[in-house]
Specification:
Length: about 375
């Protein structure tokens, strides 16, 4: 009998045990984050069960409302939002919640407040619900010092200030991917136990990938660098093989594949949507946080006058009094963006380090030209 393999199957690293282990590294910690996470995990389990039963329970269909982006809201979106809002408020560890489904941020009543702000999309990729394609929940967490004085500005912070981010994918299996700022780990729900078990420890994205992922139907409206990059994926001029195209149209599923297999996911700006489609706080930031933690990178492509010399991208602003461009944005990353509104959008290019580096170089070349 293989005792080592047996030990692996009986010594299960659940997500709770994992987070408690992490917590024990910080003796001053009071366990607030573990409690918050256990409420997020509960929300994910609930939504997973609802997604699995959706067809049966006739949950699919319009709820008769539209969300703040003017998109049709499905019953599952409404339900998922309610579940997460209630789970987060009842944790007693949150003070501000921003949900894709709610126009305004929720400021938690003082008696239930804690020090964490959670930004989330309770059910991302909802246009895929009716055909059973993988969808997911995305979340990012900020921590503030004084929960009593919580203000909206506390969530209008750059993504690099997040203390944790993750997503849960409701697919052929239910997978929760989490980073608390020291690497990325993936947990799969064991339905017989009702527990998320560590199945993907210390995820690292390949340095260069063989896949690109984009909605090519928007190609006629792309800017130069995006068009050049995609052209190069299909017709490489350096002797490398052409990349494969994979696009599900559900961010969690597309990013999950990118994280595990490598490559690049892009939702660029185009003439019709100059800020792209994806939302900064609860799509771009959490996914960028995970990518960086897994050794990849993330870029908005939007900043003005960016210059790359092969070791990162830097931003310069013209000082009119000097008539000189001064270095103001060293090594621009998506996580440096400072959102002005809670539902702001941004173009995004994220994935394998070398692939994103190529995109940055194309933007830098265009700006220079
Ligand atoms: P959806 O509209 O189905 O909710 O931001 C939402 C999102 O899906 C992402 O999950 C997905 O990556 C993207 O939009 C797909 O947009 P396109 O249909 O324009 O490609």
């Amino acid at each position: 009998m293989d005792h080592a393999a047996d030990a692996m199957h009986t010594d299960l690293m659940t997500i709770t045990r994992f987070v408690l282990n992490e917590q024990s590294k910080y003796p001053e910690s009071r366990g607030d984050f573990s409690i918050l996470l256990s409420h997020i995990v509960l929300g994910c389990k609930f939504v997973c069960a609802a997604v699995n039963k959706a067809g049966l329970a006739k949950l699919i269909g319009l709820a008769g409302e539209t969300n703040v982006q003017g998109e049709e809201q499905k019953k599952l979106d409404v339900l998922s939002n309610e579940v997460f809002v209630k789970a987060l408020v009842s944790s007693g560890r949150t003070c501000i919640l921003v949900s894709e489904e709610d126009e305004e941020a929720i400021i938690v009543e003082p008696s239930k407040r804690g020090k964490y702000c959670v930004v989330f999309d309770p059910l991302d990729g909802s246009s895929n619900i009716d055909c059973g394609v993988s969808i997911g929940t995305i979340f990012g967490i900020y921590m503030i010092k004084d929960a009593g004085a919580a203000r909206l500005e506390d969530v209008l912070q750059p993504g690099k200030n997040m203390v944790a981010a993750g997503y849960c994918m409701y697919g052929s299996s239910c997978t929760l991917v989490l980073s608390t700022g020291s690497g990325v780990n993936g947990f799969t729900l064991d339905p017989s136990l009702g527990e998320f078990i560590l199945t993907h420890p210390d995820i690292k994205i390949p340095k260069k990938g063989k896949i690109y992922s984009v909605n090519e139907g928007n190609a006629k409206n792309w800017d130069g660098p995006t068009a050049k990059f995609v052209e190069k994926c299909k017709f490489p001029n350096d002797g490398s093989p052409a990349k494969s195209l994979r696009y599900i149209g559900s961010m969690v599923a597309d990013v999950h594949r990118t994280l595990l297999y490598g490559g690049v996911f892009l939702y660029p700006a185009d003439k019709k949507s100059p800020n792209g489609k994806l939302r900064v706080l609860y799509e771009v930031f959490p996914m960028s946080f995970l990518m960086e933690q897994a050794g990849g990178q993330s870029f908005t492509g939007k900043e003005r006058l960016v210059l790359s010399t092969g070791s990162g991208v830097n931003g310069f602003t013209l000082d009119p009094s000097l008539g000189e461009f001064i270095l103001t944005h060293p090594d621009i990353k998506a996580l440096d963006l400072v959102p002005k509104k809670i539902h702001e959008r941004s173009p995004i290019f994220l994935g394998s380090y070398d692939d994103v580096e190529e995109i940055k170089a194309l933007y830098a070349a265009e700006e220079k030209a």
